[in-house]
Amino acid sequence: MASKQSDGYKSAGSEQMSGEVTPETLEAMRNEVLRKIGRNLLLFQQMEGMLKFLVANSKFAGFKSEFPIALEKRVEAVSRRTMGQLVGDYLESHLSDEDSASPVSDELNEGWFSFRFTEGLDAAFIEKRGIALAEIVGGRNELIHHFLPRWISTSLESTRDADAWLDLQRKKALPEFEHLNAMVNALQEGMRKVAEYLDSEEGQRARLRHSMLVVMLGDIAQQCGREDGFVLLTTAGQLLRQHAPEEFAAMKERYGHKTLKSLILAAEVFDFIEEPTEKGGVRVLYRVNPRWSLEIGVETEGEGTL
């Protein structure tokens, strides 16, 4: 806000209505100022809401089952932040020129994923955005805490100045409003795509491949397999019951499969065969498909990792 004298939005002492200005005209101008006060306050409230959404939703790392609770706690914490604090949070976490990865949990008992949404801009642009947002916060505080005491509603000149100041404030805020709105739309679209992927067959298969049971099945095949890599499924079942009893018992609940055979087929990283036994029965064996490796994080052309 431009510097004003302590007597309000006018250049000199209290001005009385001249004969050329009717009470009706001044009343209409006062009502217009009041309307623009509400308009600007609504604009700032919308911007504050968008900042809260961006700060609360732009970063997550953890198990899928933890996401709803973690988001609820994050939204609750953000709801208590002032607009100035939200701008600081936004600049620190959302506007970033660094590519930092979230650490992965050592205990992967279920699907674990990380999600981060940033603009990835250079430091100069981030600084420019910071200055612009700081001015928005200052203007909003000026409107809420100082505007009415400085506006002399009985003064034509003060009312005109107040009207012009409100228009200028809105003009400065609109570009930041549009930018925040675009970022909210982009984040919502990103979250929608992530949710679609996690619920898709491809996403469910990827989570299954990185689950504890599937990784342990691969390790058992490598450690206990024959020369051709195949190992008895019954052997794997016994080892899983011994070393991961809770995970094995919760196979249906966590992965949607009642049997190891069904789980192995769904993961699509194992070869699966049946061999006749000496007594006329059939035994089931599996191995890690040669195209896949248990070296987590290492991938070569034509191959995958568990």
What does this structure look like?
With 306 residues, this protein is mainly alpha-helical. The chain has two domains: 23-199, no CATH class; 206-305, Arc Repressor Mutant, subunit A. The protein is built from twelve helices and seven strands. The protein has helices at 23-57, 67-79, 83-94, 123-145, 147-150, 156-199, 201-209, 212-224, 233-243, 245-249, 251-255, 260-267, and strands at 59-63, 112-116, 231-232, 270-276, 282-288, 292-293, 304-305. A three-stranded antiparallel beta sheet has the order 3-5-4. The protein has a two-stranded antiparallel sheet with strand order 1-2. Strands 6-7 form a two-stranded parallel ribbon. Strand 4 (270-276) and strand 5 (282-288) form a beta hairpin. The protein is rod-shaped, with a radius of gyration of 32 Å. 19% of the residues are buried. Residues 1-7, 10-19 and 296-303 have low confidence and may be disordered.
